[in-house]
Specification:
The chain contains 8 helices and no strands. The protein has helices spanning 2-27, 32-49, 51-73, 78-91, 94-111, 119-124, 132-136, 143-164.
Length: 181
Amino acid sequence: MALACILIDNTIWPYYYFWRAFLIIKRKAAGEESIKLHGQVMAAGFGMTTTLLLQRPLQMLVIAIRWLILSLASVLPSFLQDVLEVIGYRILDHHIILSATTILWGVMFFIAVDGPRTKWVQTILGFPPGSAQEIFGSYQPSIPESAFWRCRYPIYIALRAIVTSCFTSDPNPMPQDLDGS
């Protein structure tokens, strides 16, 4: 479930920043400063869409380690072979690797309770102090905005349940699980 929430956040946050950047450039409330702020907000949105570029090399490294473990399993005694196959097929399963490497980068979204208005997120993204009015349209979030960002995970989980009909199966079972016994 955490992965589903992180992946949805990884989609919503960039679009949110792109929309806010569009509104900044459309209004140009602070003239030249608005254009610079627009660039910063666009860069934040674009940076969030490229988190996969950070994740893929790590994922490739873990896949290579998995391949090495499974290759070694074929030449070792049977008791070690069983242990290495469990590690290779269960612990380092492709889906687990993808989930784990995605979560590493997506934790930032997950722990930002107030979404993009979270102060430490604004600090990390380098937004100028006092720019909240222009970026977000107000100094303080409205009640519906706060409610959405704080309640987004139950909403995401409900959406996932609707889309998957409350059902999830292992798409990559171990070979002995396939023999029907």
